[in-house]
Specification:
Elements lengths: L1 H14 L8 E2 L5 E7 L9 E6 L3 E2 L2 E2 L3 E4 L5 E3 L12 E8 L27 E4 L4 E2 L2 E3 L1
Parallel strand pairs: 1-5, 2-10, 2-11
Antiparallel strand pairs: 2-7, 3-6, 3-8, 4-5, 8-9
Length: 139
């Protein structure tokens, strides 16, 4: 039985666990900024989501990224909260309150409804190949 298990493990390792090779995930570039309301006051809390307009461009995959907004209105976008940035390309932006762990004194309940949904937001950004500052004004 041990020999059969060893053969199975060796065969699985040699064959790999993934499917056929496809496009590689692109390299993220630092993406950060500040979220404010029309009067200049910062959004305190919430999450900024960046959704790629195309999942693949130039043979590189892009993914949805996000960043939590701090008490100064600042965020750093990345994958799974890593803050490493986004793959260059075009993105649609949504801004929503946090469902869990919202900041004390948050004003994220004042985010206008149109920015909370991909279908209604008019916020967009082009992420370039070097450090990106994407400031967002909620009107």
């Amino acid at each position: 039985m041990k020999r059969l298990m060893a053969v199975f493990v060796a065969a699985a390792a040699a064959g790999g666990c993934g499917g056929p090779p496809g496009a590689q995930v692109g390299t993220p570039v630092p993406t950060h900024g500040k979220v404010t309301f029309a009067d200049g006051s910062p959004l305190k809390g919430g999450i900024v989501y960046f959704t790629p307009l195309e999942a693949e461009t130039g043979g590189k995959l892009r993914y949805e990224g996000a960043g939590t907004v701090d008490a100064k209105g600042e965020y750093k976008a990345g994958l799974n909260g890593d803050g490493a940035g986004l793959v260059p390309g075009e993105y649609k932006i949504t801004v929503i309150p946090r469902e869990v762990g919202e900041l004390p004194g948050s004003n994220s309940n004042k985010i206008p409804a149109k920015y909370k949904e991909k279908g209604t937001t008019d916020l967009k950004a082009t992420i370039g190949t070097s450090d990106n500052t994407v400031d967002i004004v909620l009107k």
